[in-house]
Design brief:
- This protein folds into two domains: 6-190 and 272-420, Aldolase class I (TIM Barrel), CATH 3.20.20.70; 197-269, no CATH class.
- Strands 4-11-10-9-8-7-6-5 form an eight-stranded parallel beta sheet. A two-stranded antiparallel sheet has the order 1-12.
- It starts with 5 loop residues before the first helix and ends with a strand.
- The chain is an alpha/beta fold.
- The protein has helices spanning 6-18, 29-39, 42-49, 56-63, 111-122, 136-143, 158-170, 189-194, 206-209, 212-218, 233-245, 250-256, 258-269, 280-286, 299-307, 329-340, 355-363, 373-404; strands spanning 68-70, 85-87, 90-92, 96-98, 126-128, 148-152, 176-179, 291-296, 312-315, 346-348, 368-371, 418-420.
């Protein structure tokens, strides 16, 4: 595992610059997004960059960080700085993790393979997406002993849920992240304008097609109506995409129709809007892993989660991708921290674009902060090397921000280090 050092990173960038060499990944997050967008095809850009409705939640995720300002303290002796923190029984080098992002093959052909290796290089935990382009076992093998977790979308088949749980345990995941806010897809205008949903092309369903229970479910009677559509070039491309991405021979998948059956089975099983608190004991009875609830935005939900024996709370609004006009994640965080009162770790994501954002979330009570879209953009621009460089930059930025604010370690980042913004 590489060891981060902010001053060494700064120095190396300036020395390279003096020799006329620029870095692979731009440091400005706005420029990073712009360059990634320019490299992606329109459907990929819409899916990754877009959000629900008029995208007001996504914008609020960013603007509401300005409610808080860091108050640096002086003469604190920050010569030695320690970014490490405890995270579900493990010590990690910095209070970051890689949030789950689905369909990473839209960003880069190496998808999760590249991200997993880069995460392991820096010891940053990665949450494997339920909607991954690469099976969790393959990513786990690439990570060695580096920490990883699994995100679960509760499907309509409890047998499939159980299979996912067993696979997550077997491949060394340290926690299960149950995502609650995506029992249905949000109204995402950019995708709707293009009529683009990657799952229908067989993208982002590798956790399913690699699962033995899912393969059995594919053979069950399917009473979904078959849509009538004209044969078009795009329809043929969709068919070929599904056949190419499904395990096995392309031509066999094409002839047998198995690839399209996988897409139809996924569509039939993917979402289960009727899950309730009463379903949570099923997870506890069937896994030894800590259970984290993702998508919590109300303090009463956080309290209730603790009553049900949940091990962690994940404050997130899915990057603004689900409910337009929803409360921003950073605005929701303080009340949830107050409700939890140190009884469980609190994960946080949505709108985080740099070290100052992460510092503020930690000061408000988060245990660790998720990096989301930025690593996807870095993946687009540079594959594994791009993600690794981005993580090195984030670690350096955070170390400097922490030290310059007068904090020697993460424990010294607390509410007193912030002031209310104008």
């Amino acid at each position: 595992m590489k060891k981060a050092n902010a001053l060494d990173r700064q120095r190396s960038v300036y020395i390279a610059g003096a020799a006329g060499r620029r870095q692979l990944i731009p440091f400005d997050p706005v420029v990073l997004e712009q360059q990634a967008k320019a490299k992606m095809d329109p459907a990929a850009a819409a899916y990754v960059i877009g959000a629900a409705g008029l995208e007001s939640t996504m914008h609020a995720n960013r603007s509401d960080f300005e409610r808080y300002r860091i108050v640096p303290r002086m003469l604190r002796n920050v010569e030695e700085r320690d970014m490490s923190t405890s995270f579900f029984g493990q010590t990690i080098p910095a209070p970051f993790f890689l949030a789950p992002i689905g369909v990473l093959e839209m960003a880069h052909p190496d998808a999760e393979n590249a991200v997993a290796v880069a995460a392991a290089e820096w010891g940053i935990p990665m949450i494997f997406s339920n909607q991954a382009s690469v099976p969790m076992e393959q990513c786990a093998a690439a990570m060695g002993n580096s920490p990883r977790m699994f995100q679960l979308y509760w499907s309509r088949s409890n047998d499939l849920v159980l299979s996912f749980l067993q696979r997550a345990e077997a491949c060394g995941c340290s926690a299960l992240v149950l995502t609650l806010d995506t029992t249905m897809l949000g109204w995402r205008i950019r995708d709707l304008d293009l009529g683009s949903l990657p799952f229908l092309k067989g993208m982002g369903i590798a956790q399913y097609t690699s699962d033995p229970v899912f393969q059995q479910l594919m053979d069950m009677p399917d009473d979904m109506p078959v849509p009538q559509a004209n044969v078009t070039v795009d329809a043929i491309r969709t068919l070929f995409s599904a056949a190419r991405l499904h395990p096995g021979s392309f031509w066999q998948n094409l002839r047998s129709g198995r690839a399209l059956k996988a897409v139809r089975t996924f569509t039939r099983l993917y979402s289960r809007p009727n899950i309730t608190w009463a379903d949570l004991p099923f997870l506890r009875q069937n896994t030894k892993l800590p259970i984290i609830l993702k998508g919590i935005l109300h303090p009463e939900d956080a309290r209730k989660a603790l009553d049900y024996g949940v091990d962690g709370i994940y404050v997130s609004n899915h990057g603004g991708r689900q409910v337009d006009g929803a409360v921003s994640a950073i605005a929701a965080l303080p009340a949830i921290v107050e409700a939890v009162r140190d009884k469980a770790p609190i994960l946080f994501d949505s709108g985080v674009r740099g070290a100052a954002d992460a510092f503020k979330a930690l000061a408000l009570g988060a245990t660790a902060v998720g990096i989301g879209r930025p690593y996807c953009y870095a993946l687009t621009l540079g594959g594994r090397a791009g993600v690794s460089e981005l993580l090195e930059n984030w670690l350096a930025d955070f170390e400097l921000t922490m030290g310059l604010a007068g904090c020697k370690n993460v424990a010294e980042i607390h509410k007193a280090t912030l002031a209310q913004g104008a």
